[in-house]
TrEMBL record:
Keywords: Cell membrane, Hydrolase, Membrane, Metal-binding, Metalloprotease, Protease, Transmembrane, Transmembrane helix, Zinc. It comes from the Bacteria. It comes from Anaeromyxobacter dehalogenans (strain ATCC BAA-258 / DSM 21875 / 2CP-1). The keyword Metal-binding applies. The chain crosses the membrane at residues 46-64. InterPro entries: HtpX_protease (IPR050083), Peptidase_M48 (IPR001915). This is Peptidase M48 Ste24p.
Length: 495
């Protein structure tokens, strides 16, 4: 169980007192050294004066490292007149947790909620800004989003005013102690900041649980539990989705029509495959990072389950229903995500339903034709998918994978022999799948692709996943030829 709120307040006050004392000592030290330098000059102690001046300058430089670059959320700013339901929810939650209402609400790309301050020093004189991820909105219900907002805004209440100030001060010190900041001369200051952050880490994690308490009081334990699990899972899935589905599109000069439609389909597909449940279990077993601010997910879930269910009404509407013109917002922010990855390259918009036929399939087909040409040049086989497979399969049955890989990808020769194993596996598996796909396309097959699944080829009523065929064939070399033959000779009228 976390520390009681009064104890968290007391610890926050103590931690702030230590921080303030350290800053005062540093200022007094700088002033004393500067005064010593001034007094040393008239007495002729030039060396002592120079040393004192240099030391004073160093201490002042350390203090100036606290002037970190301001954090500013980038995304789509929304006003109450444009998104009345979402902004009203944010303001209502802020009022209920006792936090200042956000002056600015910004829609950001990921699966996250961020409450930051813009301007001011160590949070003093700053104004609150709330960032809400469209990826999170895509996954949560209204009550779950309410819980997520209450947790993030609750940081300003956890531990009272002292706790809120400590939370902001730790954020500043974390940025001030970033590796390399201040160069060699700043190393002692960075170590001092890191030591302070480590000393207050337990308190910061207790504040996280107090923020969880605020979320439970606002939205109920059930909504908070669901929000915790879905946000943790969603953050991992969104990263995987960008890597698996979006970045390959961008690499081919395309961007999805609506990135978030794809993300919802990706999450649904992985849930149907059972992979989301496995991810939940893995996340529940994951310990906290040594320097991580959040307690482990399992501890946060256990904390929330300890609260009685007060029977609070739960708004199960999709959080997306709070948005006006949700489709336009998703397309705009999704286009920004793709553009960030493309740099200066122009991107063509493609609907998700056409990705297989227009992007992924042709890419695999081009690779298959390249492999077929290389096999034909080496073995004298026809430069077709079927011809290349006829020449390549016997080599792979004999497990001469490295010899085959050198033919399929001559650049492998430049890799040190001891480092080739993984690359050989990758080259052989990709080439075998691409050649199976090419054989099917040469028979009149059509490309198709579903989000969260490998590219497929439809021949009549049969649907074949060539990359899965390659994995199955290479897993059992005694059946390799049979597996490949069965795939490329699938009757067109089969189901």
């Amino acid at each position: 169980m976390p520390a009681r709120a009064p104890l968290v307040v007391a610890r926050a006050v103590l931690a702030l007192g230590l921080l303030a004392a350290g800053l005062i000592v540093a200022l007094l030290l700088a002033g004393g050294l500067a005064a010593g330098a001034v007094l040393a000059v008239p007495t002729g102690h030039w060396a002592l004066g120079a040393l004192s001046a240099a030391a004073a300058a160093l201490v002042i430089r350390w203090l100036l490292l606290l002037r970190v670059a301001p954090v500013r959320l980038t995304g789509i700013d929304v006003r109450a007149s444009e998104q009345p339901a979402l902004v009203a929810l944010a303001r209502t939650v802020a009022q209920r947790v006792g936090a200042p209402a956000p002056r600015r609400v910004c829609l950001v790309a990921g699966v996250e909620v961020m409450a930051i301050e813009e301007g001011g020093v160590l949070g003093l004189g700053a104004h609150p800004v709330l960032g809400i991820g469209l990826g999170l909105i895509a996954l949560l219900g209204v009550s779950e989003l309410e819980a997520a907002l209450a947790h993030e805004l609750g940081h300003r209440r956890a531990g009272g005013r002292a706790g809120g100030l400590l939370h902001r001060a730790r954020a500043v010190l974390t940025r001030a102690s970033a590796p390399g900041r201040g160069g060699v001369a700043g190393a002692p200051f960075r170590r001092l900041c890191a030591a302070y952050l480590r000393a207050t880490l337990h308190l910061a994690r207790a504040q996280e649980l107090q923020a969880d308490r605020a979320a439970i009081q606002v939205a109920g334990a059930a909504a908070h539990l669901a929000a915790l699990e879905r946000a943790a899972r969603g953050a991992v899935l969104f990263t995987a989705f960008l890597a698996d589905e979006v970045e390959p599109l961008v690499a081919e000069g395309h961007q999805p029509e609506n990135l978030y439609d794809g993300f919802r389909a990706y999450e649904a597909e992985l849930t149907e495959q059972g992979r989301s449940g496995a991810l939940d279990r893995e996340l529940a077993r994951t310990p906290a990072e040594p320097e991580g601010l959040h307690p482990p997910l399992a501890a946060r879930l256990a904390f929330a389950r300890a609260f009685p269910d007060a029977g609070r009404p739960r708004d199960a509407r999709p959080a997306r229903s709070l948005l006006l013109n949700a489709e336009r917002l998703e397309r705009e922010l999704g286009a920004r995500v793709a553009a960030e990855r493309a740099g200066e390259r122009p991107l063509a918009v493609v609907p998700w339903a056409e990705v297989g036929a227009r992007v992924y399939g042709p890419r695999v087909e081009r690779a298959g034709r390249t492999y077929a040409a290389r096999v034909a040049a080496e073995f004298g086989a026809p430069a077709t998918g079927q011809g290349a497979l006829a020449a390549l399969v016997p080599t792979l049955e004999r497990r001469h994978d490295e010899a085959a890989a050198l033919v399929l990808d001559p650049s492998l020769a430049s890799v040190p022999v001891d480092d080739r194993t993984r690359q050989v596996e990758r080259i052989v598996s990709h080439a075998l799948g691409a050649l199976v796909a090419l054989s099917l396309v040469e028979r009149g097959g059509a490309w198709r692709s579903e989000i969260g699944r490998p590219v497929e080829v439809a021949v009549g009523r049969a649907v074949v996943a060539p990359l899965h065929v390659a994995e199955e064939a290479l897993a059992d070399r005694s059946r390799l030829a049979e597996v490949v033959r069965r795939a490329v000779e699938t009757p067109q009228d089969s189901t």
